[in-house]
Amino acid sequence: MRLLLEAVRADVVTTTIVPAGQDRYLGVNYFSPPSDTLLGILAGLQQMLSAEERASSYLAMSQCARAGRLLLTEYGGDLKRAVLKLASELEPFDADGIRCLLCDASGPRSAATDTRAERRRFVTNACVYTTFVWGVQLGVVDETELKRLLGRDLAEYKNGLLSLFGKEGYVRHSLDAPIGTPASLVALDFVSVHRGFWDMTDARERALFAATTDLIIAEPRFRIPNTFHFLMSADNPRNKMIHRIAAPAYQGRSSWPTFNVEFADRMMDFDESSESNTYRACAQAILKDIRTSTEVHGGYQELISEHGLKYRTWAYKGAVAHSWFPRFLSVWKRAYGTPLLQWND
Question: Of 28, 61, 102, 148, whose CB is crowded by the most CB atoms within 10 A?
Fold first, then answer.
């Protein structure tokens, strides 16, 4: 965490830290701003600070929380600068009478794999909003400072994004997507992040979520046959040569268990807010298939191919994402009411 915070201090956007010997490290700059790296750092600090709030009274929990507070004190100024810089770089966008703020769409892309940072995509802008919200919650930045830069409060900023990307009645994954059927214009990553963009307190927000969710569930091309493994998209946009030999095609026909877990969790959010059981059975089926996949493949997979197999390319031989497994267990317990695993103290 300290290394990533040092990268923020140096104004470097990095997702990977590489040891370079003699206490030196290199930050591999995969993504140009806005990436979700800053959001991830804030999430990490949130996890550290909340450690001592957990039921387990282990000494390590309080030590973790103390370390988080020290890091926040030491690097709070750098984080504030980064958050305010992000706010200052948003640009006004007007379409069909809808006025909102979007990421700078004219900025250069940083790499061939840089699909997550495409600035006219819903999830990119939703993550920017979440970065602001978490920055305020952590005390990194004051909401009045953000309002001064944005020219509106955060609620109005969010409503603008929902109005723009949801003007057809469902959440369109990108403003640049070609004309097509509604199912081809949505993507699974609209579920965004845990405790992030979606809070489901507004009826209009729930309606947009439900409409988008129903499109995904009803489209056979959105899932691996005979499973509840949902793919990122019904089509395979921008599947370049590099995706075939090296990095996974993030937007394409591959299944990310982590996004499926978040999909299930947002379904539970919807049911809880609407006081219904609209999606509980589907959420349970998603989690059950992830459990089966984890058992079959011998670990919690980062990716699953569109055929339900380990994702394998020439340079990407398949990877496990064990750090996400506890999140899966938490959502499982929420959906089923009982824990999947029983831990013996």
Answer: 102
SS3 28: strand
Structural domain spans, the chain: 175-345
pTM (whole model) above 0.85: yes
Interatomic CA distance for residues 108 and 111, integer angstroms: 9
What burial letters (b/e) apply to 278-296, b meaning 16+ CB within 10 Å?
Answer: ebbebbbebbbbbeebbee
What is the tens place of the pLDDT at every residue in 219-271? 999 999 999 999 988 876 555 666 666 656 566 677 889 999 999 999 999 99
Collapsing DSSP to helix, strand or coil, 3 comes out as: helix
From 25, 29, 71, 19, select the one nearest 47 (Cα to Cα). 71
Longest CA span, the chain: 59
Overall residue count recorded for the chain in this entry: 345
Q: What is the DSSP string of 51-99?
A: GGGSS---HHHHHHHHHHHHHHHHHHHHHHHHHHHHHHT-EEEEETTEE
In one-letter notation, the amino acid at residue 83 is V
